[in-house]
Design goal:
By secondary structure, the protein is of the alpha+beta class. The protein folds into 2 domains: 4-103, Orthogonal Bundle (Helix Hairpins), CATH 1.10.287; 119-418, Bira Bifunctional Protein, Domain 2 (BirA Bifunctional Protein, domain 2), CATH 3.30.930.10. Helix content is 41%, strand content 19%. It contains 12 helices and 16 strands. The protein has helices spanning 4-9, 11-20, 27-63, 67-103, 138-145, 149-156, 165-184, 198-203, 228-232, 290-307, 354-359, 384-394, and strands spanning 123-128, 188-189, 195-196, 215-216, 222-223, 239-241, 247-256, 275-285, 312-316, 328-336, 341-350, 362-364, 372-373, 375-383, 402-403, 417-418. The strands form 4 sheets. An 8-stranded mixed beta sheet has the order 1-9-10-11-14-8-7-2. A 3-stranded antiparallel beta sheet has the order 3-5-4. β4 (215-216) and β5 form a beta hairpin. α3 packs antiparallel against α4 (67-103), α5 (138-145) packs across α12 (384-394) and α7 (165-184) crosses α12 (384-394). The longest helix has 37 residues, at 27-63. It starts with a helix and ends with a strand.
């Protein structure tokens, strides 16, 4: 959510920042709606003040024996009592209109974010590891190692998965290993709801614009698309003690996405699923700590790939490719030798105070007056299914077997190799 005061102060700068994201100028409609709302509020306040004044004057007129004056004041109060509720309803509707306009607008890009309309404008920051070339793609490997595509299709249709045997164990091992890594890195392990209310999904920016990308239950709750929703909203409508910041949280959860906006993308294999597991990191920080926390979070995600010896690159996303709530994002892309390409495996974003304004999450500094909005950050540490894909392609042997990366061996019950089942 955006600060209306800042928009009033410099609407041209606001529209210029939106234009970097490919969004049309919004300040004219916003300021028109805001001016209309303020006009209603001014008239309402004047009528409320006049009603109170006239009500007091009625008693004084009666005490002075001025029945005509008292009668006129009573008539005026009667008119105001009819008009004020209508004005209050008009104020409510106008305020909702202003909020709806604000809620539909994405966060503004940070100054250091490069211009660009899509992924072609992203800027590579670094590379790690020595990519190998060749080999099978993950779907061909997984089909021989325990991915039961027929069962998943019968159970739920496309973009769901059934994993069996050692492949299922490797999937579980990755989730537990990555969660332990982020806990060891200082993120507090958290168990969170998978079903949340409207306010929570609004707070992190999925509602109202991206409702079609979510699953909604019959009682009006939403299945979380990522634990970011639950973790970030754990501080909603709170005033935090500034001394406890930063708050670092992590969770391993199932995630659910309808992928309504991703038709035709990554339909093969295990990359883009309606249901998947992910280790999420969230940080609630003071504004002056956000840059350092974004770098810290990104390094925590990269550390997982380095520990598994999976080559990757870090990309700074351009203004047109960032998520709705982000002001700055680093994507981490892992190398897939079978596919011969880098594939996104984590996004780490600084959202500034954009989500905090939607959640009304603030903090207070000891000895200072007033409160400030916190800054929120989130990142994947990592997506389990995509990490499984990366392990399969990078650790495959010529016969279709897959070696288990050494850090995962303690989780594998003595298995060191995934071997084809048939």
């Amino acid at each position: 959510m955006h600060d209306l005061k800042a928009i009033r102060a410099d609407p041209a700068a606001f529209d210029a920042a939106l234009a970097r994201r490919g969004v049309a100028a919004a300040s004219p409609a916003l300021l028109d709606a805001d001016n209309a709302l303020r006009g209603i509020q001014t008239a309402l306040q004047a009528d409320l003040a006049r009603r109170n004044e006239a009500s007091k004057a009625i008693g004084a007129a009666k005490a002075a024996g001025d029945e005509a004056g008292a009668s006129g004041l009573l008539a005026e109060v009667g008119v105001l009592k009819v008009r004020i509720p209508a004005q209050e309803e008009a104020e409510r509707v106008a305020a909702q209109g202003v909020q709806a306009l604000l809620a539909a607008l994405p966060n503004l890009p940070a100054p250091e974010v490069p211009d660009g309309a899509d992924e072609h404008g992203n800027v590579e920051q670094k590379r790690w590891g020595s990519p190998r070339n060749g080999g099978l793609e993950h779907d061909a490997l997984a089909a021989r190692l325990g991915w039961n595509a027929q069962a998943s299709a019968k159970l739920a249709g496309a973009r769901f998965m059934v994993l069996e045997g050692a492949l299922a164990r490797l999937h579980r091992a990755l989730g537990q290993y990555m969660l332990n890594m982020q806990v060891d890195a200082g993120y507090r392990e958290t168990v969170v709801p998978l079903l949340v209310r409207d306010d929570a999904v609004f707070g992190t920016g999925q509602l109202p614009k991206f409702a079609d990308d979510l699953f909604c239950t019959t009682d009006g709750r939403w299945l979380i698309p990522t634990a970011e929703v639950s973790l970030t909203n754990s501080v909603r409508e709170q005033i935090l003690d500034g001394e406890i910041l930063p708050i670092r949280l992590t969770a391993l959860t199932p995630c659910f996405r309808s992928e309504a906006g991703a038709a035709g993308k990554d339909t093969r294999g295990l990359v883009r699923q309606h249901q998947f597991e992910k280790v999420e990191m969230v940080c609630i920080a003071a504004p002056d700590a956000a840059d350092a926390e974004l770098e810290r979070m990104t390094r925590c995600a990269e550390a997982v790939l380095e520990s598994l010896d999976l080559p990757y690159r870090r990309m700074l996303l351009c203004a047109g490719d960032m998520g709705f709530s982000a002001r700055r994002t680093f994507d981490i892309e892992v190398w897939l030798p079978g596919a011969g390409t880098y594939r996104e495996i984590s996004s780490c974003s600084d959202c500034g105070n954009f989500q905090a304004r939607r959640m009304d999450a603030r903090y207070r500094v000891k000895g200072e007056k007033g409160t400030q909005f916190v800054h929120t950050l989130n990142g994947s540490g990592l997506a389990v299914g995509r990490t499984l894909v990366a392990v399969l392609e990078n650790c495959q042997l010529p016969d279709g077997s897959v070696t288990i990366p050494p850090p995962l061996l303690p989780y594998m019950g003595g298995l060191t190799l995934l071997e084809p089942t048939g």
